[in-house]
Amino acid sequence: MSERRKNLQAQALQEAIHALRARQFARAEQIAASILKASRTDRTALLVLAHALLGQQRAGEAIGPLEKAALRGTDPEIETLLGAALCDARRSADGIAQLRRTAARRPPYLPSFKELAGRLAKAGQIQDAIGVIEDALALSPDSVDLKLDLARLCLRTNDRARAHANLVAARDAAPGRPDILIELASVQFLDGAYADAADAFRRALGLRPDDTQSRASLAMCLLEMGERDGAQAALRTLLRGRPHLLTRAAYALAASSHGRFFFRPSAAAKFLQADGAGNG
């Protein structure tokens, strides 16, 4: 292949990747398919094509190319994507078997554990999913994402103590992760540790100020603590310029043991100054 041809193909590949990231799946598929016509073994183009097909809910069409690529040599990323495609194509048994084989390879490819655990959890096999993440953590004990995954799975079995412990460890290792702070705050709220939950939600909002759900949750924490003024200020901030969130704000008020209930949305809107007159 000439140097000019290589440069053109590299440019096309970058365009396909950008299209995939922008969720322009049909465009990404078109470009990746044209690249593969000229270079059938281009790994990156194959991965883009497979992800584009999965994004269009055409998993069955991704299986053939991925199987051929998997036969050419050990590639855990391709094998993991193959397992996902098989599951999405309603061949869950085959997909999970593929993911188990990939997870058993060494050195470990952690995304295969995460994909396997997710598929098992989706099938209702929560304890098996927990076991998979535990195995992954034994191989990579410092992985923050695995601790977060384990916490979320533990919550599905209502093991809040273990979920809390893993979330605290994850937060300490990655204090700048709002997703971890939000999960931790949610567990603390369920445990009645409203002050701790409010602090975690505030930290998350400092990192992600437009997170409306966290702001509503902060208001609920404050209401449970009897801090009505602070809660109402949080809800007014939530509603400023976003009147479509009135239902969420009204629910936050009504769900709290120290909140308020309104029979008419207009009354809730007036109370919360949803017309923008408030400056809470």
For the record, give the distance between the C-alpha atoms at the N and C termini, rounded to a whole number.
65 Å
Strand segment tally: 0
The fold-level CATH name of the largest domain is Serine Threonine Protein Phosphatase 5, Tetratricopeptide repeat
Q: Which sheet architecture does the biggest sheet show?
A: none
Shape: globular
Radius of gyration in whole Å, from Cα?
Answer: 24 Å
Helix-strand string: HHHHHHHHHHHHHHHH
Any idea how many domains?
4
CATH class of the largest domain: Mainly Alpha
Average pLDDT over all residues: 90
Topology:
Layout: H1 3-21, H2 25-38, H3 43-55, H4 59-71, H5 76-88, H6 92-104, H7 110-122, H8 126-139, H9 144-156, H10 160-173, H11 178-190, H12 194-207, H13 212-224, H14 228-239, H15 246-255, H16 265-271
Helix pairs in contact: 1-2, 1-3, 2-3, 3-4, 3-5, 4-5, 5-6, 5-7, 6-7, 7-8, 8-9, 9-10, 10-11, 11-12, 12-13, 13-14, 13-15, 14-15
Please explain how this structure is put together.
- The protein has 280 residues and is an all-alpha fold.
- The chain folds into four domains: 1-57, no CATH class; 60-139, Alpha Horseshoe (Serine Threonine Protein Phosphatase 5, Tetratricopeptide repeat); 159-206, no CATH class; 210-280, no CATH class.
- It has 16 helices and no strands.
- Helix 2 packs antiparallel against helix 3 (43-55), helix 7 runs antiparallel to helix 8 (126-139) and helix 11 (178-190) packs antiparallel against helix 12.
- The radius of gyration is 24 Å and the shape is globular.
- It starts with a helix and ends in a 9-residue tail after the last helix.
- Mean pLDDT is 90; it is low at 274-280.
